[in-house]
Amino acid sequence: MKQGLLFMLAGLMALSLLAGCNTVRGVGQDIEKGGEAIQKSSS
Q1: Which of 31, 34, 35, 42 is the most exposed place for a label (fewest CB within 10 A)?
Q2: What is the value of pTM for the model shown?
């Protein structure tokens, strides 16, 4: 029982970390695109 619970918790932690990485990556891409748009509008 304990082993199954630990496995489930480890899986949930790994899933949340992967989801967090994708979110941060998406925010970085949005910021980069915003910066490129500002550069294009200023030139």
Answers
A1: 42
A2: 0.48
